[in-house]
Every structure is written in C-alpha cells, then in structure tokens.
C-alpha cells in the first residue's frame, strides 16, 4: 500500500504598528493536504526576533504536525511549500544556503528531525498567492 503524498504549506505573519516600522505581533499558520485537508493550525507567538524567524517557526510547527500525522497514517512524501525563499533554501538539503544564526540552525534541525521518517521530502518556494491558505490561517490567529 502506498502512503500519502502530503503537501505542507506554511506561513508566518508579522503585524506592524500604525507607523509601519515597529512590529507589534506575530503569528503562524500551516495546512497539510493530500487531496483534502489533513491537518491545519495557527497561533500567535508571544516572542519573535524577525519575520524570518517567524517563518521558521511556522515551518517547524507544520513539520511537527505532519510528523504527528505520520504516526497514524503512512506518509510516503511531503512537499513543503512556503513563500520565504530564505527559509525554504536554508532547510532544503539540496541548496547550499545556510540558516544563519544559532536559533535558525536549531529550527532547521527541528524540521529535518520531524520529517526524518518520511522517505521523500521536497522544498519549494511559492508566490504568496500560491500560499494563501497558510497565510489566512496565520492572519486569523490574530483574531482568535
């Protein structure tokens, strides 16, 4: 029996104050599908360093959700999609990009560890409009 081929979309969102210079809040969203939604989530973050760190946290949360799913259903592949090239390239072992600081390096390790049991994992940067559901989930977290 073939396992699920899961597409995982992730996004982080940072809200800025009225002068559009000071970040005031951050949230993450992710959705995993295999022809139909399998798992989705969103939440605000109480602390964050930068928008890139927020994107990394969205990817970690999504990868951990897929790992939880794979404990109950066979997952043969995960295709990670996000709109932050810096994050996607840093996590993708096929790219030469590095994660940067120690916190981001730890996030890369968390993603790879969470998805280690999946035989095939791919990463691709997508345009924001191709990542709309994850973005909507992140933005919705501000209102929940």
What does this structure look like?
Helices cover 36% and strands 33% of the residues. With 144 residues, the chain is of the alpha/beta class. The protein has one domain: 2-Layer Sandwich (Nucleotidyltransferase, domain 5). The chain has a five-stranded mixed β-sheet, with helices on both faces. A hairpin with a 6-residue loop joins strand 1 and strand 2 (23-33). Helix 1 (51-70) runs parallel beside helix 3. It is globular and about 50 Å long.
Number of helices, counting only DSSP H or I runs of 4 residues or more: 4
Content-based structural category: alpha/beta
Helix content: 25-40%
By oligomeric state, this entry counts as single chain
Largest sheet properties: 5 strands, mixed
């Amino acid at each position: 029996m073939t396992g699920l081929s899961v597409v995982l979309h992730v996004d982080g969102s940072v809200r800025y104050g009225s002068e559009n210079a000071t970040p005031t809040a951050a949230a993450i969203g992710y959705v995993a599908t295999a022809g139909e939604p399998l798992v989705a989530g969103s939440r605000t973050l109480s602390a964050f360093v930068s928008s890139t760190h927020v994107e990394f946290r969205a990817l970690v949360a999504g990868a951990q959700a897929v790992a939880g799913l794979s404990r109950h259903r066979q997952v043969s592949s995960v295709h990670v999609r996000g709109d932050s090239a810096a994050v996607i390239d840093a996590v993708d072992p096929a790219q030469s990009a590095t994660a940067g600081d120690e916190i981001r390096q730890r996030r890369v390790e968390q993603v790879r560890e969470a998805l280690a049991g999946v035989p095939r994992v791919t990463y691709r940067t997508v345009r924001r409009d191709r990542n709309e559901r994850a973005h909507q989930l992140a933005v919705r977290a501000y209102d929940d």
